[in-house]
Amino acid sequence: MNKGIIFDIKRYAIHDGPGIRTTVFLKGCPLCCLWCHNPEGQEIHKEILLRRDRCPAECFICLDICPQKALRKPNGEIQVDNSRCDCCGKCVEACVYEALKIAGCEVTVEEVLEEIEKDRIFFEESGGGVTFSGGEPLMQPDFLDGLLKECKKRKIHTVVDTSGCASFKTIERIAKNVDLFLYDIKIINDRKHKHYTGVSNKDILENLKNLVDIGKRVVIRIPLIAGINDDINNIEKMARFLKSLRKIKQINLLPYHKGGCAKYKRLQREDPSADLKQSPDEQIKSIMSILMNYGFFVKIGG
Amino acid sequence: MNKRIQKLREQSLNAKPYITPERAHLITEFYKSDIAQRVSTPIGRALAFKYLLEHKEICINEGELIVGERGPAPKATPTYPEINAHSLQDLEIINSREKIPFAVSEETKQIYKKEIIPFWRGRSIRDRLFNEMSKEWKDAFEAGVFTEFMEQRAPGHTVLDDKIYKKGFLDFKKDVRKSMKELDFFNDPSAYDKKEELKAMEICTDALILYAKRHARKARELIIKEKNLKRISELERIVEICERVPAHAPRDFWEALQYYWFVHLGVIIEYNTWDSFNPGRLDQHLYPFYKKGLEEGTLSPEKAKELLQAFWVKFNNQPAPPKVGVTAEESGTYTDFALINIGGIKTDGSDGVNELSYLILDVVEEMRILQPSSMIQISKKTPDGLLKKAIKIIRTGFGQPSVFNADAIVQELVRQGKSIEDARNGGASGCVETGAFGKECYILTGYFNLAKIFEITLSNGLDPRTGKKIGISTGDPAKFASFEELFHAYEKQINYFVDIKIKGNNIIERLYAKYMPAPFLSILIDDCIEKGKDYHDGGARYNTSYIQGVGLGTMTDVLTSIKYNVFDKKYVSWKDLIDALHSNYKNHEALRQRFLNKTPKYGNDDDYADNIMKMIFETYYRAVNGRPNTKGGLHRINLLPTTVHIYFGRVTGATPDGRKAKEPLSEGISPVQGADRHGPTAVIKSAGKIDHVRTGGTLLNQKFTPQLLASDEGINKLAHLIRAYFKLDGHHVQFNVVKADTLREAQNNPEKFRNLIVRVAGYSDYFVDINTGLQNEIIKRTEHESF
């Protein structure tokens, strides 16, 4: 059976492509962007998340129930020893306060489709459909391919939201069942790209070019992080590169937000993005006008 | 908005509601008179109505274009002692209560003490009603099992169609006379009764014409004193209009509005009818006048807008008459539920949207006042433009307009036996109630507390709050072997209390028919004239009595929780459950959290819960639907709460869905506050599983953060969401677009948020005017944080 690992399904997703959509978040990502707002999507394996604010001091049920003895509560503060925890989920099941959650759930293509089908009436009414996001959905190519094939069989519009970090062979394989790609471009300077995302952008840019060349519809998404990639130099270079691909029409700018910060805490990880800031409105406006001058349709969000 | 309207609007917003003893005094004076003793009941009512209109003070405010007030001044609110003779203590409460007060002067209290109370005590409908009700009825009423709409306000619940735009009151008078002439005293044993009723109607036609002419006279007096030439010419026009309408059919836009307003005042002076009367499909009715005016060059869109805005102010000047006790709890608001219908379909089934529909939306947006309320009827044929324009207004956060499914309304009405034409000319009034406008008497008789009845079921017929046995014995639930057995016991209790309520309704309807006919309202609703029968006595073409179910979401979660946790998963023993409920979850917090967080809930598109919702719906439907009323019509159900879910919650102990004692119940068909965790599409899918077409209206509240609607794309997507709900036959949806933080701030600093209007349930209200329980409920409804 074709199985994969996802960490969320969000209904009424209205910023991930046309119409009303259901977004499926596939777990695992080859990048580790400093500004990542879904850090629980980075690792491909399951992880435990803690909501300490929901955990009452007097409750020790999860400690007793954990077969690995991976949970501790010194000074009334719940902690997980990740070297012991095998994410069996027994604690999550037992915690009625919803202070514990496993990010990552093994599911079959059929199970995901069942969830997607629930909102069919909204897709059909609005010209929406399903978006596969992550993490990086291309990290699970067989699963993604299975999902996309099944969606197309059922006449559901498909979007893949990707960093483009995969072999082109993988991209090409899934592309025939994708109606629209939301393709992230972050930084043109490769050294900087490596520094902030952990990987080179060489393949990413090459893949984009190839994807456009085989005639796929692509909307570019650019996350904007103050002082990292919102400088005019980077934007100009990006614009020139995208222009050279000829067929790119639309760019969505995604100003950085602090949505991911709380999640690092829940993952018991250091928050690497603590110092990051949103670009000032003025800067966003001038970036918009630069890109528009290149003839792109530009919008904020989505 | 021009300066005139700004001023009128400000005056209306700043006017403080107070009680005027004028009406109480006049009606008492009339009923003490000789003539009142010598005539039949309907004629007595008609003469009383005429006496009121002959003697009440005439008020024309400075700069007004549409004239006439119910009391002597804006927000001077009359009382109706023949319905409810307030005691001095009532007046004191009304005067001093924190929310929805009306100032009551010493003079008014004295008039009440000397004149009003001595005469009406024992004669008022309220006194008669409580005398007639059985012990079982009173027990259930006091326990909060149901409320009774007619104990302080008269049945109204109807809306006007297009008849007044085609006929004057002199024409109606002719119709009345014709009907009188055709009476067959040889073969019709009720011919005499009909004659008296028709004579009463005739008196009322004269009374309204006379009332309008008194306004003409008043305007003439003002002209003499007026120095401003422009105002003089306006007043001259007002004189002309008041001489013309309502005696004759209106000739233009202005006359049409003024005509309606006189009719409106007639209805709300005759009685304190529930759900203030309203013109209904205003864009349909006024469009011919609008078009003609533009073609002839006598009207411009700006002038039409100004007149509409002046008309809007008139509604806002009339707060709902003061309510006390349980009725104040179930409807704690100044709003009197006049709901202007915009859009929808025409008699022939074609799209009804016209330029005026858009213009009226402009008026709604600019006026931003409580009354009248507004809604749009969206059919398959309605252009997206109208829906999107409406959403842009909804986005501004004051809860108007609400959105209705015109196609569902037609289906509901046709299912109830209305002709397709009457159905297409209908709409929704009050909060969400479906009606055949101008042809139906559709009475809301009271709210029905589905959660309280379950609490009584759990105690084998006892009300745990008082220890009184008010239900029937349906067995000790601890001994029930299955969920089905429990549900069956609940069903028996529901049937028992519905029987009590219907028996009460069928007595109360007759009290109004016998003692409180409404000959003026009867002129306006087909086929009262033709039948020679009063509106309260089956004169209307269609007659429906509703009992409004409350707590569907709460009850779904309650039964789901028991099925899931006790019977299916066996997480909880029956004893532990009952202990937890009796102790209000004290020392059972973990169990409560399990119910809140680990149990399927309605509003998440989860069939485990939603199938139980359908069972409850069917049970309630079967108990009520199709039971005869006394007017030749039937009882039906609808699902809405106004503010009663707060009161019903307060009298209901802790429930197995994790709700603590006294907390609010869910409202309308919305999920329990905060229980919906999968976003709006899941809520809509769950709510879409209700068979709306078999109701007379359902109410769904949706919360939206302003950010979701910030862009045009957000607006488009909301439009799609609404259309999808309507494909599922959803009846109505309304939106609160405001952040919970804003509301919390308003709660802490009410003086800074005097103007903050929020959607409550079927209407909007000033946030600072609603009680704290309801404020908290709305805050809870507005936010939900995910993991």
General shape of chain B: globular
Radius of gyration of chain A (Å): 20 Å
CATH architecture annotation of the largest domain in chain A: Alpha-Beta Barrel
Distance between the termini of chain A: 33 Å
Description of the structure:
- The complex is a heterodimer of chains A (302) and B (787).
- Chain A is of the alpha/beta class.
- Chain A contains eleven helices and 13 strands.
- Chain A is 33% helix and 22% strand.
- Chain A is globular, with a radius of gyration of 20 Å.
- The two termini of chain A are 33 Å apart.
- Chain B has 787 residues and is an alpha/beta fold.
- In chain B, helix 10 packs antiparallel against helix 11.
Strand and helix layout:
The complex is a heterodimer of chains A (302) and B (787).
Chain A: E1 3-13, E2 21-26, E3 47-50, H1 61-65, E4 71-72, E5 79-80, H2 90-94, E6 100-103, E7 105-108, H3 109-117, H4 120-126, E8 129-134, H5 141-153, E9 157-162, H6 168-175, E10 180-184, H7 190-197, H8 202-213, E11 218-224, H9 232-244, E12 250-255, H10 261-266, H11 281-293, E13 297-300
Chain B: H1 3-14, E1 18-19, H2 22-32, H3 34-38, H4 41-55, E2 76-77, H5 88-96, H6 106-120, H7 125-132, H8 135-143, H9 169-181, H10 191-225, H11 229-244, H12 253-270, H13 282-296, H14 301-316, H15 325-330, E3 339-343, H16 355-367, E4 373-378, H17 384-395, E5 402-405, H18 406-415, H19 420-424, E6 427-429, E7 433-435, E8 440-449, H20 450-458, E9 462-463, E10 468-469, H21 483-515, H22 519-524, H23 528-531, E11 542-550, H24 552-568, H25 574-582, H26 589-597, H27 607-624, E12 634-638, H28 644-650, H29 679-687, E13 701-704, H30 712-727, E14 732-737, H31 740-748, E15 757-759, E16 764-766, H32 772-782
Parallel strand pairs in B: 1-2, 3-4, 4-5, 8-11, 11-12, 13-14
Antiparallel strand pairs in B: 5-14, 6-7, 9-10, 15-16
Helix pairs in contact in B: 1-14, 2-4, 2-6, 4-10, 7-21, 9-10, 10-11, 12-14, 13-16, 14-16, 16-17, 17-30, 20-21, 21-27, 24-27, 31-32
